[in-house]
Amino acid sequence: MKYSKIPPLALVFLLLNALVAFGQKAYILKSHKMSVTGTSTMHDWTETVKKVDWSGNITTEGTGVKAISDVVVKIAVKDLKSEKGGTMDNKTYEAFKSDKFPTITFKLTSATVSGAVVKANGTLTMAGVSKPIALNVTSKVLADGSVQLSGSQAINMKEFNMAPPKAVMGTIKVGEKVTFHYELIVLPKT
Known about the structure:
This protein is mainly beta. The radius of gyration is 21 Å and the shape is elongated. About 7% of the residues have low confidence. The longest helix has 16 residues. It has a single domain, classed as Lipocalin, CATH 2.40.128.110. It has an eight-stranded antiparallel β-barrel with strand order 1-3-4-6-7-8-9-12. The protein is built from two helices and twelve strands, in the order αβββββαβββββββ. The relative contact order is 0.19. InterPro entries: Lipid/polyisoprenoid-bd_YceI, TTHA0802/YceI-like_sf. This is YceI-like domain-containing protein. It holds the Pfam family YceI.
């Protein structure tokens, strides 16, 4: 009987990879609360994100997240809806160049977990421009096994070659900085 000789270090590496792959589960979106807020020369404003596509892998242990990978978040620009009505919506779609670039996308490139905080490094693409971004996401494993991911991120529209919307012949101007607020509940894919 012949035995294959696998170097001990290679065997450890193979076992660790198997454990990591086994521990991670694919998750899908259960529910979301997401909005974009900003200012203008007339009033502050809020746009609600009506639909979000989310996918990714998460490893949990007890009530904490241990690892997260392969996250992709997609939002159709036309799923942004303003409390101020259609005029604001149309100005937003124009700023995002939604006819040419209909989707906002975040792709995770790496993540580190420290307690309940996930530092999520990734690429954000808006209006056809992709930029690296680092998000601090608060994570929590809920009683039903789903995971809550929440936080906020300020973004300067001009960094994505977006012109802040204007109205009434330029007398009302939106501030160039906006803030994305999010609370996502994701659950293991069955």
